[in-house]
Structure formats: structure tokens, C-alpha cells
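ugh ok fine here u go
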Amino acid sequence: RALEIKNQIVPIPQALWEKADIADFIELELLKGRSKEEIRDEILSWCRPKKRVVSFWEAVQEQERKGLNKFLVPGLFPARGLGLLVGRSKMGKTELVCLIVSKLLKGEPLFGRPAEKVKVLWLTQEDTKKTISERLQLRGITLEEMKSNLFTVEMDQEAISGRELIQEAQETGAHFVVVEPLHAIKELNEL
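structure:
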């Protein structure tokens, strides 16, 4: 009653001891200096459904609102999300990535599909920047295009955190990120 919440069964946080109840939780939180409104809002948040059943049409509308229906290359590379190109060593992954990046840097069709012109962030611990630059030049990318649309992070052999990677992509305006090898991301080294 003190928090004006209708009678309802709510889960109790695991932080409470085995025989505790919601009154114990409220008392502890008040002792910590939280307001009744803050405690009430937290308790009500436990009751909100975690999943919601919606019509397929509503789901499509929500994806469009979030921009999840946009592609850099239709059907191949979504504008948001993660895509992986995986293969054994010396199978041509870097060559394929150079082809993809060259098309994205120019906004030219890729595999018969239109491609958006975007900036690229390329992190590598396997190839030198010079080697990648030469490969891209063989595909028609000029030094001027590289200067304004292709970025990298100087990393030696130390991995970069996922947060740092996202920050670098945002700061450079990159919409396509290449990371080779994948363990160049700190969090993936911990798996």
C-alpha cells in the first residue's frame, strides 16, 4: 500500500535472502536512500512482459522504424548488424574482402546488385596497410578515395574492445567494418 501498487505476484530479486519478501526489499531500498517512486518503478518493471506477440505486419513496421530493413548491398550486407566471412588460411578471404570494399568505396554494383557508396573502417593484424592499399588500387580505388573514405586503427598486436571499435566506426562515419583476424576484438579472445 505504501507504494500504491495493486496486488500482484512479482519476482523477488536474487539479491534478497531466501525467506525475504517484497516488504524486505522495499525496506532495504528505502534505507539505501531511494525514493518510493524509484522503488515503485523498479518493482513495476519486473512485471512488464519480456516478450510480446505482434502481427507480422507490426514486426515489419518495427524493423523499418529501426532501420533493420536497409542494406548496403541488397540481400547481402545489411546496413546494421554483423556479417562474418570465415574460411581457412590462404583461401582468398582478403581478396574477396578487397573486391567487396572496392565496390562499396565507389558505390558500384557487387555481384549484380546495387551497392551504396560508404566509408570503410579496416582493422588488420594480418596484412600491411601497404598491401591492402595496393590490392585496392588494382581494383581502381584511387589514393584520394582511400584518404577520404578508408580508415584503419593502428593496433600492433593488441586487440581492440568492441566498444572502441564501435566508437571508431562512429567517429569516422564508417558503415562497413572489416576486422581481421576476428581475435583482434578483445571480447572474442575471452571466449
